[in-house]
Recover the amino acids of this structure.
């Protein structure tokens, strides 16, 4: 959880199918609280309130879905304990199962949630929450193109297509939104 400097640890999960714009956009967004306001009003960057980092099953670099190189800061075994875990959207064939393809990610997400982290997904990132078993009997939202992926593969999930933001789970620590999820989370902290 929070480090000695009291910054909020924000793990941003990367898989090779990730969309780099979402991954790096989340990183940039979570770097700005505390830093940017001071810079805008005084010309001096303030102290960051959040510590974003990219985490993946290993620290080996890989090309994201659009070819941009991603070099994770940490692997699952050596990353700081997250306060928040963000799951960017990634390329998954709509309606198809990803069962077994992301077992390390699903296990890490489940453990992070069990340890108290808030989990948030953007668009198709909710599929990894389903793989982790965290959507059973929960409301969820997702990009319209992936509704069948959730309903066909994760029985018990209640997809709310008319809602852009859904909070669920114990203490509402699971957040899903079709777009702009990271912005709403950083604003609420």
């Amino acid at each position: 959880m929070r480090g000695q400097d009291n910054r909020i640890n924000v793990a941003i999960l990367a898989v090779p199918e990730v969309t780099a714009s979402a991954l790096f956009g989340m990183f940039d967004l979570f770097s700005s609280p505390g830093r940017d306001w001071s810079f805008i009003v005084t010309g001096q960057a303030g102290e960051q309130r959040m510590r974003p980092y990219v985490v993946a099953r290993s620290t080996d670099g890989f090309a994201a879905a659009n070819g941009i190189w991603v070099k994770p800061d940490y692997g699952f075994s050596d990353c700081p304990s997250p306060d928040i875990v963000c799951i960017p959207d990634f390329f998954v064939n709509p309606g198809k199962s990803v069962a077994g393809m992301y077992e390390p990610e699903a296990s890490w997400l489940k453990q992070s949630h069990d340890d108290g982290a808030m989990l948030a997904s953007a668009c198709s990132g909710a599929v990894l929450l389903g793989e982790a078993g965290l959507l059973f009997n929960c409301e969820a939202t997702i990009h319209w193109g992936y509704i069948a992926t959730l309903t066909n593969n994760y029985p018990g999930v209640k997809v709310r297509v008319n809602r852009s933001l859904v909070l669920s789970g114990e203490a509402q620590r699971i957040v899903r939104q079709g777009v702009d999820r990271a912005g709403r989370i950083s604003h609420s902290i």
